[in-house]
Amino acid sequence: MNKVLVVGGGIGGITAALELASCGVSVTMLEEGPSIGGRMIQLDKTFPTLDCSTCTLSPKMVEVALNHNIELLSWAKPMAVKKAGQKFQVTILKKSRYVDIMKCTACGSCFPGCPVVMKSEFNMGTGPRKAIYIPFPQAIPNKASIDKREDRPCKAACVDACPIHTNVLGYLKHISEGRFTDAYMLIRATNPFPSVCGRVCYAPCEQVCNRGQLDDPLAIRDLKRFAVDRFDLDSLEPSQIQKTEKKVAVIGAGPAGLACAHDLAVEGHEVTVFEVLPEPGGMLRYAIPEYRLPKEELRKEIRYIERLGVTIRCGIEVGNDVTLDAIKNDYDAVFVGTGAPKGLLLDVEGENLPGVMDGLKFLRAVNSGESVETGKSVAIIGGGNTAIDCARTVRRLGSENVKVIYRRTRDEMPAAHEEIEALLQEGIEIQFLTTPVCFYADNGKLSRMECIRMKLGEPDASGRRRPVPVENSEFSISVDSVITSLGQATQTSFVEEIGVLLAKNGTIEVNPLTGLTNVEGIFAGGDVSTGPAYVVDAIAAGQRAALSISCYLKNEPATMTKAVKKPERLTEDEVVDLTAKIPRVGRIHMPEISVKERVTNFGEVAIGYSPEDAMAEASRCLAGHIEGCIQCGECEKLCEVRAVDHTMRDEIVDIEYDSIVLAPGFDLYDPTEKREYGYGTLEGVITGIEFERICSVTGPTGGDILLNGKTPRRFYFIQCVGSRDRQSGARFCSRVCCMYTAKHASIVKDRIKGAEIYVSYIDVRAYGKGYEEFYKSTQESGTFYIRGIPGEITKGENGLLVRVENMLSGEMREIEVDIVILATGVRPRKGTEELCNIMSIERDEYGFIKVDSITPSRTNVAGIFVCGMASGPKDVPDTVASGGEAASRCMEYINQ
Amino acid sequence: MVSQTQTRVLTCIQCGKCTGSCPEAGRTPFNIRMLVRKKQFQSVVEESIPWYCTSCGACTLRCPRDVKPSEMIIEMRSALVENGAIPAAIQKALENTFVQKNPWGRSRAKRGAWFEKLDIEVPHISETESKRLLFTCCIQAYDPRCMVIPQNVATILTKGGVEFGVLGEEEACCGNEIRRVGESGLFEELQEENKAAFEEYGVKEIIALSPHCMNALKKEYGDLGIKIVHYTEVLAAMIKEGSIVPKGSFNKKVIYHDPCFLGKQNGIFDEPRSILNAIEGLEPLEFSRSRENSMCCEGGGGRMFFEVEATYQRNAEVRVQEAVEKEAEVIATSCPFCVMTLEDPATEKGITVKELSEILMEVL
Ligand SMILES: Cc1cc2nc3c(=O)[nH]c(=O)nc-3n(C[C@H](O)[C@H](O)[C@H](O)COP(=O)(O)OP(=O)(O)OC[C@H]3O[C@@H](n4cnc5c(N)ncnc54)[C@H](O)[C@@H]3O)c2cc1C
Ligand code: SF4
Ligand code: SF4
Ligand code: SF4
Ligand code: SF4
Fold first, then answer.
1. Which of A140, A555, A585, B171 gives a 20 to 30 Å CA spacing to A656?
2. Is the pLDDT score of B334 beyond 70?
3. d(CA A546, CA A334)
């Protein structure tokens, strides 16, 4: 079988390919872009018949896909051509599309999640598309592809460090470009508590952020809060959920339990949460103070979980009001997420005196609105986050002399650095290397605390240096109350009763990847199995358990969550390279209420970013610095048939052909350089091809002619822009613009009642059958043809001012319109030069492919033919004719 | 034989783009497209008509057939000059230029008067090492309103440590306007005289103070092998490097008018704006017609020397009116012709016209 290569999948290439295939030739069609169709598929209608362009071309495109004699390669182009005798040895580059076309079903599930919004080439930039996309619904092949142009310069260590693998780079990309709702939804996709995490997460992501190796890490947490603040969760409707008839009990309404309940409810299970305290939220509700996490923020997120159908029953203590055994019998599975609610004891004399309080109990009382008397001088014992929460709360209750007593030094303090800073700013002192040894009372009231100085000895099991008392260094401090915050323990006797295994310290033993305990149907996670940790770890544990509970309920083996990749750092070379490329820009900090004001009340300290600051801060993300796909992996997560494959690589193949047909088509003149017309600077000045997209049903407005959401009423078309024009180097007439302008005018007349339409022309070229008649009927319908080309367009009071001489009457006019459409001329397609160079094809002075005058498809190289716009301006009928001519010349050559 | 202009004129397709671009079209009896048409057929053109052209260059820059209508106008005027059929004021200006090398006929010996009263030393070009010449426009050399421009620029250059020299009375009118009123013979004479001076002193660089002079020196003197710049280019670069630092503030709304010879015709739009933007407190505004679409002030093409016949609202008035509507407090520009045309209507409307160097002087 003879083989022919057709380069270009526009109407020209399609015609040639179909003709050749019908003669029994095996055709390979190369299309540089994601789909065939060329320019014609971008058109709304075609002159002079006003047939729908898609309706005429689409069947032909499908024919290409179905024809057994045609092999279609999209994202492919020739790289080198060698003539071997009469034949051609062609090297073809197949660019990888990162989507397996054998698997992709064109379902479109992957697009919405992609955070990279780009201009749609198909819509000439009049509308957006994602980095993973199908250019238009009728695309052939109808498969997604990823526009990946370069490798991400950073390692996205943030995502790997985040226990719930938040798509950090994705939501930062959204924020940096002002898509705040999209950012929120992307965060929400993996996190039922964005507001909580946006405020109180310990942000392990920021600790590993690769930008930190250049200047400062991104404010990942604060930007999350920004996205949250601009979203009204109460107005978010949960999507329809298919019920499963399975019942799951969750013990404990902390973040682990609620996250688990959330995910189970989304899966359709009926979930009941049992909580001992009067309100759900666990430590979020009863430990974290209002000034860091306003209760209403938490309530909103819990309300949404309830709207998913989760029942939360408060005031029920499992083990006391109801046994776990009874619950186990009533439900198909149980998740235990009861946390670590007990404070540890100090174990010194006088600890039971009134005035000495446990930190957790103290915070719970304040958070419950009880009035707590702490007196003037208060000492807080401990160096963790809870100790600091206690101290800052006490300060807000009005105590003047607040002191934190810690037995090691600042370097060993487990509390977050920023929390310690805030504490110091608020005027609270920390006394390091000190520990209490005894509390004394006066008249039954706590009055004094005896302390001893410590020094650091050898490292202990935790790796920190062990504090040892300094002999004879006792001293005493007078205090009105003391709050101890030395760590937390679990309360797990109720699970032990049904045989669940506990570790020595009382935590529940689970498989950390699945949350499964040793008892069938009982799962656990969060602080109750790890000991005190962080909110986001608890959420992660709840989510992992929900996943394995779902599997368990379907009698499937537990799906292990994917092996976790360790956060990677930039290498030294990469740091040097990036430092050279990216200017140093430090973090933009979120503003806070002044210290003076904040210590007087429980109002939230951090105020939140302004949109401008948030966008500027988010745009520091290194991943956002590249064009195209940022390799965030969201599409991979969303694709059910696993068609996305980021490991694909470009391919190069060598194939021999008997002949070649070139049909690379055309581009349009970019009128930006004609500054007098203001294209690119004046709103409302567009080009003809952009206008086609705005008119088209497959366009960004669904076929409504809209400019910024409004229907324009006054239209001005200017012909010959960049054609017959020495200034732009194109002395030729583009042949299609007179007619497409007449077409545009008649489309407007048809769709917009009372539209006022002007067309500026030099002379109208409507040669041949049906064209002149079409021009005449356009005029008849009330389009004003003005002979005279405008000198300039400027912004007027209520629109665009077009200055033009109506030269048939000699009048100068200034016409005000809403939209100006420049009928830009044609140019050889970008890349035609390269294409011609690799096969030694000659071009004319404008870059169109040179042809023989009597055989208009024959190039200077025997065996290589050309059709369509590539050899000079042609409309669709002429292109089709030239496609047929090329095919027949090709057959002639092959059969020689 | 058909002249070059005539062959170009014959290719005109009567598209009207020139008329649509012309600042005189519609408001005066002048229709450039029609004149081209008449020229194609050698029909009679009323004598007063060609004098409306301001030589803004818009038609020539935009004509799709490269007819160069504004050059055709110069040729038409040449014919009129040859026949002596020209406005008396122009005749006078030409005679003056012939004798005193400036259109006002002021004494040539006084061409250097502007630097005599300055505190700084302004050396003759021969005494400089850099051979960098500061070239003054006739308006700047003689008109009391515009004399401050060379004075300011000389002071600023000195402050920034840029060495330069002047030609003083050896400098002649650049001839830009002379060529445009159709006296090519006189233009050539002026050109020869200036060229000889440049050669004699080995001039290596010319800082032109007026866009009109810059245009002539750069594009119409042939290849001089000399770097020619407008002073705003030099000052903008000095600010960028930090050799001059605007310290004070200028708390006013300033609207910038692009001179045709600096902007449209020579593509210098950003330098003047960057100078304004470097000044603290200054709030820059833009005309709706700015940069490439800037509206000609009607000062060029000999229009500085005489009044045309028709009465109509002058572009300068339109310009000032827009400035007032935009609540500008100062109209800034960087051409002595524009200063002269804009100032009258501006004063009437109570708004100030300042040449860029004047604003800069205030804040240095
Ligand atoms: C605004 C506008 C309106 C128009 N309206 C009409 C109308 O109403 N009626 C009408 O008859 N005509 C109209 N036309 C003209 C019509 O669009 C063209 O005649 C027609 O598209 C030409 O087809 P083609 O195949 O030659 O080129 P194209 O349509 O440009 O197709 C060329 C294809 O080749 C691909 N390609 C290029 N280089 C390579 C390479 N190296 N390797 C692989 N692939 C490559 C390109 O990606 C493209 O898909 C209009 C044109 C414009 C600009
Ligand atoms: S990896 Fe992320 S950025 Fe890239 S295509 Fe997929 S969703 Fe879009
Ligand atoms: S087809 Fe018409 S609009 Fe297009 S270049 Fe030719 S004359 Fe101008
Ligand atoms: S712009 Fe050029 S081609 Fe058009 S009318 Fe004027 S001179 Fe003639
Ligand atoms: S140069 Fe300016 S004023 Fe003269 S004809 Fe051309 S556009 Fe009109």
1. A140
2. yes
3. 10
